[in-house]
Amino acid sequence: GFTLPSALLMLAAGLAGGLWAGGTGAALVHGLKLVAVAVVAQAVCGMAQSLCPDTPRRLLALAALAVLIAFPTPLAQFCCLVIGAAAGLALMRPASEDGPATTAKAPIPAAALAALAAFALLLLGLPLLATASLWLQLTDIFYRGGALVFGGGHVVLPLLQGALVPGLLPADRFLAGYGLAQAMPGPLFTLAAYLGAAVGGVGGAVVATLAIFLPGLLLLYGALPLWARLRAQPWARGALLGLNAVVVGILAAALVDPITTSSLKGPGDAVIALLGFLALVSGRLNGLAVLAAIAVAGALLTG
Fold first, then answer.
1. Which residues contact 173 (CB under 8 A, 6 or more apart)?
2. How does it sit in the membrane (predicted)?
3. Which residues contact 43 (CB under 8 A, 6 or more apart)?
4. Model's pTM, two decimal places?
5. What are 102-147's pLDDT values in tens digits?
């Protein structure tokens, strides 16, 4: 599909770090940051409508937003996810459905259990090894980002931003890469190729891209045999409802800071981002054309 070509293009953009520093490059970076504002705002609105349709879930999302504005750390994000799952388990558990007696359950394949064990071992073990080298640090950051994404690819933004900015990458280059990823036809996870290249060159891009896709593959292989069973369990559905609501709050917090705070430098920027957001939400215009218009308008305003 489009994954490999998009990843290669994002890798090339990540390697071209010096081009972002000049006058034209800085103007383009600013335009791409305004793209990020409009796109993430659209994502927050869309996810809020689908994942927070009732008062309890809206309150969970608002609580996560408030906590993460006050404490913008990866640990706070993780705690919000845990609390969201617990709240969903306690408050949003659907009623059990009556139906025919369940037949004998087939045993879980050993390979599926091994995949789930590998997923958990890497998630818990990589942070302990991350300080040993840049490659292990990148593996930890992007594996964790891929593992903790719930509710859509846009949620990876605050997870990666908290781990990379400002220690490994300036906020401007991070948000420019996110804006550029919106114009690519492949999955949003190809952003990892850009970020990995910006931090560690070609090797960093390869490590980051493999690491961000690996947890999804392990979960797919390991959880697929369990999915039918979990889907039938009211407690699992309740926990997922709570998790998804918190995800909306996490993404909204990222929209506030760092996306909006570092991207809108004046009234002109706010107008461009708002018009772009309204155009995206309306759905009447070509999405890529809207993104290109936002980027060009932002660059011209800066230049």
1. 17, 20, 29, 198
2. Multi-pass membrane protein
3. 152, 154, 251
4. 0.77
5. 444 667 788 889 999 999 999 999 999 999 999 999 999 999 999 9
